[in-house]
Amino acid sequence: MPKVKLTDLVLRDAHQSLFATRMVTADMLPITDKLDKVGFWALEAWGGATFDSCIRFLNEDPWERLRKLKAALPSTPIMMLLRGQNLLGYRHYADDVVDKFVEASAKNGVGVFRIFDACNDPRNLQSAAQAAKKTGKHVQMAISYATTPYHTKEVYADLAKKYAEFGADSICIKDMSGLLKPYETYDLVKEIKKKADIPIEIHSHATTGLSVATLVKGAEAGAEILDTVISSLAMGTSHSPTETIVEAFRGTEYDTGLDTVKLLEIAAYFRDVRKKYTKFESSFLGADTRILVSQVPGGMLSNLENQLKEQGASDKIDAVLKEIAVVQKDCGYVPLVTPTSQIVGTQAVFNVLFGRYAKITAETADLVTGRYGAAPAEVNAELRKKALEQMKYAEPLTCRPADKIPNEFDKIAEEAKSIGAKNDEDVLIYAMFPKVAPEFFKNRGKGPVDSASFAAKPPASAPAPAPAPVSNQPAKYVVNVNGTDYNVAVQPAGSIAFAPAPASPGPAPAAPAPAAPSGGGTVIPSPVAGTLIRYVVNEGEQVSSGTTVIIIESMKMELEIKSTAAGKVHFLVPTGTQVTSQQPLAEIG
């Protein structure tokens, strides 16, 4: 039995899980020399949410981060997490964009591509896997793990066999919620080994408290590589401590051969670094066994709590956790990982707030009609029918979704260059996040943020009293609460309305200014807090009752707002505006 190898996730998944992916490159580089000499199989340092966070919050070029890390880690491969046909964005891309992105990632420093799909649809992984194989780098294809009546060890083993046939160099069992149980892990690894004679890596979050035992049993069953995190950024919603696993196996046939003294030096460094990011940390640090039932990834749980606070419904978290199981089943038992975790979680929130499927997000509709790929199991027929009607789709999509997307890199490049993209890497930044990229290109020259500035802001728990507004419009402020920025609108009467602050400036207003209803028509209120992202009809257009007139973005999902009467529509709020629950958006009269 070969010795077990370790991949440390401290440069990516650890800070993504613990403090909102905010670690800056400047806090990584001073310790890379020691990280490089430990003897890890790989260091996960890129992909996932890091690309988004770099341009959205840190004013860092993600490609520059990758190049710097590669130069500083000459002996240890850099692993990235890639969402198959979604790459690092939230939609499927054409194959030519996938090819360009993978090629650029390999060129700039990625040595191991961990590729997964939220639906475990092999068709959504094939293009990225083939592109990665062409670069000559290690291709690891991941199984998104879930515990449902559909997901048996035989199903997972068959999936691993398909991945091996695609040319995967290794298989990852990706347990994003901490659902893997020790003895089930043993059986699963044994079953996969019967059908796929390639190395297995186990990735299991510590959220439920099971992960250390799970990794041990996985190694005993034959898993060759384990994911861990240096102890000062381990546990909670992160992963098992590296030093703990090293010591657990010391002197056994699974001995990692790693030096705990060297690891403790690295742990001490990150213990100090972590103090800079306290404002972004969740209060959750222990084991949450609710997840064993709800299957909600740890990061998703904290997001749900924040989302319910924004909607004034914090008391409904337990109802939402129960509803998630219903929505997951109705959506064909999709594993809960980006983006399906957000889709299922937000739909569960809407079901609890408004009644089951009274309001269906556009993303839920796309998920159940095949626009994200084939669901693992059968989708609820009534939900699919309702989704087809809402989206005006003739039928569900049964082919690979990307087959319907023509080559688009040249078109994206033309758009990107018009707003400041300088090269293909910039074009790919724009392709991933077209709403955020323009502001990043504009401000990139100012350089990355300094992590010391995170601690410089005054605590938000006791904001100064707001001055009285000088007009009949609300005075607006930004208040930070536990690492989340909120727009606070103080009304003339003194009431305060909270809405999540925008990640980037919204589109230019399509109406001159917010307006009050005239009182002579039917008012359409916003059912939730969010952002008015676009009008579906024109100002003054005659509409029928039931016509979609506005699209709201709430909890990262798009929600249609329909007219409740017939008549001419008059919009009261500009696009790009942060709106509160029950705020008037339009008037029909």
Brief rundown of the structure:
The protein has 589 residues and is an alpha/beta fold. The protein has 20 helices and 19 strands. The longest helix has 16 residues, at 260-275.
Overview of this structure, please?
The protein has 589 residues and is of the alpha/beta class. Helices cover 36% and strands 17% of the residues. It has helices spanning 13-19, 32-38, 50-58, 62-72, 95-108, 123-135, 153-165, 182-195, 211-221, 242-249, 260-275, 291-294, 298-310, 317-330, 340-354, 362-368, 381-391, 409-418, 424-432, 437-443, and strands spanning 5-8, 42-47, 78-82, 110-115, 138-144, 170-175, 200-204, 225-228, 475-481, 484-490, 496-500, 522-525, 530-535, 542-543, 548-554, 557-562, 567-571, 578-579, 584-588. Helix 16 packs across helix 17 (381-391). The chain is globular and about 80 Å long. 50% of the residues are buried.
